[in-house]
Amino acid sequence: MTSRSNPGPLCFRVYLEDTDAGGIVYHTTYLRWMERARTEALRSAGVEQSECFKADVSFVLHSMNLRFVTAAALDDEIVVSCELHTRSGASLTFRQSVANQRTGRVHCTAEVVVACISLQTKRPRRIPSHMVDKFTLAGAAQAAEPE
Fold first, then answer.
1. Cβ-based burial of 6 (10 A; exposed 0-12, middle 13-18, buried ≥19)
2. For residues 147 and 88, is the Cβ–Cβ distance under 8 A?
3. Which of 9, 16, 64, 118 could serve as a FRET partner for 29 with CA atoms 20 to 30 Å apart?
4. What is the pTM of this model?
């Protein structure tokens, strides 16, 4: 996802709390890192979660297809990327990866679909037009899927 204020991918070091007893990154840690990257990608497009909540909008996980390639380990320097791949009237599809920042070796990839829902009804709803405009203005919507 790119925009004028895009902070770029998230970069950080693997800490002990991210690993199992053998110093290998625990599988659910990748999910947490990807969630943070998606939140920052939306923020960089001008979509703040706190503002969404006030507008009765939330983006919830619909589906996720993960591929674990190589294990990340304690003290590795990590980069987590997030790109908006497609959007429909009520969903966004992201492509994400977790890689070693120094070597470029990919640890995990994912295709993530989030659905737009009403917080009050917990039912799907169209993404509000002012949000869709932000995705388009940011150059984030590379393709549109039919509903």
1. middle
2. yes
3. 118
4. 0.84
Q: What six digits make up the tokens of 81?
A: 């990327």
pLDDT tens, position by position, 108-121: 999 999 999 999 99
- β partners of residue 13: 77
Q: State phi, psi for 52 to the nearest 5 degrees.
A: -60, -45
pLDDT value of position 7: 52
Chain-centroid distance, C-alpha 6: 13
Instruction: List the chain domain ranges.
Output: 10-137
What average pLDDT values come out for the chain (147 residues) when binned by 10 residues? 54 96 96 94 89 94 97 97 92 96 97 97 94 66 37
At position 101, the amino acid (one-letter code) is Q
In one-letter notation, the amino acid at residue 44 is: S
CATH number for domain 10-137, candidates 3.40.630.30, 3.40.50.11310, 3.10.129.10, 3.40.120.10: 3.10.129.10
Q: Which residues are catalytic?
A: 20
Place of tokens 């706190």: 50
Both tokens of 7, joined, read 């902070």
